[in-house]
């Protein structure tokens, strides 16, 4: 896999690489994830992110940071060119598990935080298993986000940064906005 530039500041992934080395190991580990069990609660990684403590604190997906976050997912997906059957299987498995932990509403759109957090968790997990299936190293940004999911939190977007320019240019790498 060609190198994908890390857009997140190394925080949770420092000294904590992805535990699974194969797709099978990763899929088995999904049963042990504490899906969103620690939303709003402190974490040992809080110093390296910006924390939100309520669904209403989340700024939504339609802003430069939310759009950059979505584009980062798409760039990784484009590089991976995932096996659709594998992607769909893991995506569905995570949806089944994670949606019971929050007030997920399947008819809602991406402005509904509890629904989007489940969709994003499923997407990240499916991308990771497809990267592992190719025998590649999992990109740093996916490891960073996965560690938060595995710890029961939602890495919801990129966080504001004082280094951003008045014209709207975003600086990278940057911290995550985590619930």
Overall structural class, as computed from helix and strand content, comes to mainly alpha
Strand segment tally: 3
Percentage of residues in strands: 5-15%
The CA-CA distance between the termini, in Å, is 31 Å
Helix count from the secondary structure assignment: 5
Q: What would the average pLDDT be, to the nearest integer? A: 92
**Largest sheet entry:** 3 strands, mixed
Helicity level, as a percent range?
Answer: 25-40%
- Low-confidence stretches are none
Give the overall silhouette. Answer: globular
Would you list the SSEs in sequence order as H and E?
HEHHHHEE
Radius of gyration: 15 Å
Instruction: Please give the order of strands in the largest beta sheet.
Output: 1-3-2
Number of domains: 1
Describe the structure.
The chain has a three-stranded mixed sheet with strand order 1-3-2. It is mainly alpha-helical and about 180 residues long. The radius of gyration is 15 Å and the shape is globular. It has one domain. It contains five helices and three strands. The mean pLDDT is about 90. About 35% of the residues are buried. Helices cover about 40% and strands about 5% of the residues.
Q: Layout of SSEs?
A:
Blueprint: H1 23-29, E1 50-51, H2 64-80, H3 84-98, H4 113-133, H5 140-150, E2 155-158, E3 176-178
Parallel strand pairs: 1-3
Antiparallel strand pairs: 2-3
